Amino acid sequence: QVQLVESGGGLVQAGGSLRLSCAASGRTLSSYDMAWFRQAPGKEREFVARLSKTNGITYYADSVKGRFTISTNNAKNTVYLQMNSLKAEDTAVYSCAARYRSFGTYDFWGQGTQVTVSS
Question: In this predicted structure, what is the pLDDT of residue 80?
Answer without folding.
Answer: 98
